[in-house]
Amino acid sequence: MDNKQNQTPLYQAIRDFKDNRNVSFHVPGHKNGEIFVSKAKEHFQSFLQMDLTELDGVDDLHAPEGIIKKAQELAADWFQSNYTYFLVNGSTVGNLAMILASCNSGDQVLVQRNCHKSILHGMELAGVQPIFLPPAYDKLNQRYTAPSVATVKGAIAKYQEAKAVILTYPDYFGDIYPIQEIIDLAHSCNITVLVDEAHGCHFSLPYLSAPSAVELGADIVVQSAHKMTPALTMAAYLHVQSSRVERERISYYLQMLQSSSPSYPIMASLDLARYYLATFTPEQSDILFAYIEKIRACFNNSDDWILEQSDDPLKICLRVKEGVNSQDIKQLFAEEKLYPELMTDKHILFILGLEPTIDPDILKDKIRRITDRLIFSFKHAKIEDKNHYFNEDITPLALSYADMQHQQQKWCSWEDASGKIAAEAIIPYPPGIPLLAKGEEIRETTVEKIQDLFEQKMSFQPNNRRNGLYIYDLTEGE
Ligand SMILES: Cc1ncc(COP(=O)(O)O)c(C=O)c1O
């Protein structure tokens, strides 16, 4: 490892500042943790002492010249980008900024349909014309994956003016696809490649076989450091390695979209997450992989679920078998104090950290108790395989974002929704991938899927659309 990767300039400066016992006559109002609700003070104390503002010596995220600049450079060096930005509002703000900085109003943008809501929001803010790329459906694992290379090729041939392609890599379940081919194809047509790599921050480790899209030459890559590496919630990176996008524009949108008082603990955790990855040893890797094997063995051989394979060893995905209700399993897991990351109607996803956190023998006992109870109690739900709820064609939105602004909305029951145009997104959460996008024509199969998921008590955003949704009133003025 490069010696300079041993440094943590931002974290160190904050610690020094704290050790200096400075007197605060500035914001934040907790005054280095001295003023706080007494019953919570003890818990928050050491954290509050690191919660600074832009004082002399601790730099400014929006105009970095000192320790933040240095910490970002170390990150760029580790992740092999030309420039890395620290983000304090998750991949969400990174996705918004990368789209706003790369595209102009009216530009055609090819976008993987099963993207996170922040991508759709970014396109709406930028006023671009999304062209949706249908994802392939993986019959074995019973879920959508990514658009095939052929799909992207077809879209580029049809929409020759396309400015950018936006991809999600890896998917929530840790699966990857031949993104290199797509990047090369897009670049050969001078199309900018923007990648939401929210779940791939750890791909920079040499011990994992999946490569990062940064390494593969995407123009901008956004990663949530907080998802797969040890960092505070909302800590994320935006990596740039392209002259196709002006860096000034990225800086401009980031200072517009992010707080003018960015959290120093979050930024310091980005400095530390990079350090953690850069100093991760082969011995740690051996321990991790041995642990993963034991944890996977705990989940294996169940009558109730199938343990899937994933390209990301930290993702453990169970696909529930026919007749087993994933919500029931989730409840039993909760009773054993086991909390998965994500539940769909068919899958339960567990995410491991980069070090062992539970004794595999304890986990084994917990899972045995769960499976014993499943034999005796539940197993009543029939899983209807309501697949293919995304359009299988390459399609633009039914209404442009500009037209949507002038269109009246009205409430519509799900029974009458088919064929209408959605005025809002309907989003199972997590994973935050809209089943219906704003401005999209509503399909019967999508309605069925949404109703099915409500039936199975899945969580949605918004959370009160069980009976219907807002649509655009296209009859107005007729
Ligand atoms: C694929 C994907 N992109 C972006 C995001 C947003 O990330 P963040 O929570 O860091 O804002 C998520 C969050 O779950 C996600 O799954």
Primary descriptors:
eight-stranded mixed beta sheet; 3 domains; alpha+beta; 16 helices; binds pyridoxal-5'-phosphate; 478 residues; Aspartate Aminotransferase, domain 1
Secondary-structure blueprint of this entry?
Blueprint: H1 9-19, H2 38-48, H3 67-79, E1 83-87, H4 90-102, E2 108-112, H5 117-126, E3 129-133, E4 137-138, E5 143-144, H6 149-158, E6 164-168, H7 179-188, E7 192-196, E8 220-224, H8 225-228, E9 236-240, H9 247-257, H10 264-278, H11 282-299, E10 305-307, E11 315-320, H12 326-335, E12 342-343, E13 347-351, H13 360-376, E14 395-396, H14 401-406, E15 409-413, H15 414-417, E16 427-428, H16 444-455, E17 460-461, E18 468-472
Parallel strand pairs: 2-3, 2-6, 6-7, 7-8
Antiparallel strand pairs: 1-9, 3-14, 4-5, 8-9, 10-11, 11-13, 12-13, 15-18, 16-17
This protein binds pyridoxal-5'-phosphate.
State the end-to-end CA separation: 69 Å
The CATH class of the largest domain: Alpha Beta
Total domains, how many? 3
What spatial form do the alpha-carbon principal axes imply?
Answer: globular
How would you classify the helix and strand content by structural class?
A: alpha+beta
Largest sheet: 8 strands, mixed
Number of strands: 18
CATH topology call of the largest domain? Aspartate Aminotransferase, domain 2
Q: Helix count, per DSSP?
A: 16
Helical residues, percent: 25-40%
Mean pLDDT: 94
Q: Going by CATH, what is the homologous superfamily of the largest domain?
A: Type I PLP-dependent aspartate aminotransferase-like (Major domain)
The spatial strand order of the largest sheet comes to 1-9-8-7-6-2-3-14
**Chemical compounds bound to the protein:** pyridoxal-5'-phosphate
C-alpha Rg, in Å? 24 Å
